[in-house]
Amino acid sequence: MADAEKSEFKPITRDFLQKEWREGFDIFYQVPVEGRRKFIKFAEFDPRDFSRLDAILKEKQTEVFYIREADLYKYYQFNIIKNLLLGLTQDRPPVREVFQRVYPVATRIFQDYLELDASDEFLILLEEVPRILAPAVESENLPFAELFKLTLKENSTHAHCVNVGLYCLCLARELGMNRKKQEAICLGGLLADIGKKYIPREVMFKESELTDEDVRTIRRHPAFGKKALSELKRYPETVLRMAGEHHENFDGTGYPSKLAGQYIDSSARVCKIMDVFNALTSRRSYRDVMPPIQALTLMKEKLGGQFDPKLLTAFIQYAGKS
Fold it and tell me: Do 49 and 21 meet the contact criterion of CB atoms below 8 Å apart?
């Protein structure tokens, strides 16, 4: 019972209640009961009368409250995403601005999915991202220099996943893939690394040198990700294989299955390039952001065996366009 409750409720702060809510919902707080955590209804939130709730909150000696995951899902679906779509329809902004509007929404959804330990069904919210972006680049691809500028360079899983998804989409468009394929490869890039959610945080974010056992544990994330996505029973084979094969190397030295060359799904080969590129160009505790030209040079001259050479060349050419 306690475990079921814990998975249903997600922590929120008072600031969260001041966001763009349209519908009401129940707020809960946590109390210990016989050695277990129990969630008790604290108040009803009516966005039309926040002042009443604010007065109640000030009396409660805690800054953390809880919301049912179903209500959090509705918040994104009927407020954030709905308003995003409405604004894009009304304004018809240029392609760069479309990406600028979509990017923070995607990273915010991913961050809550990971940090609040939301269920995998929460990922369904991200399916709107490729449906918005693929049509946006149909007539004019976003120049890579512009795309690179708008992505976060922080060392976080949520930023990494969104960056990889957007990079995959724009290269797919550059390669002449049709819209359906572009949408699939964008979604696959977004979801490729979700298996990291199932790696213990003390291993995933370990600052000291990794042990052999740590490395083996982290290398299980492609299998975990593919399994989680398969169980949702809604994703095409392209998305599943990108999750399972994005760490396979073209020369057969990758993991988890040591696939090589054409035996690796073509979309997973694209994802591999973007995964490494984003890792190299993200800030680390031991170095600052690596410039794209330096990262691409390193990938071509030192890491070339990992990548499909034709796809790597195509990416370098795309990145070099003005």
Answer: no
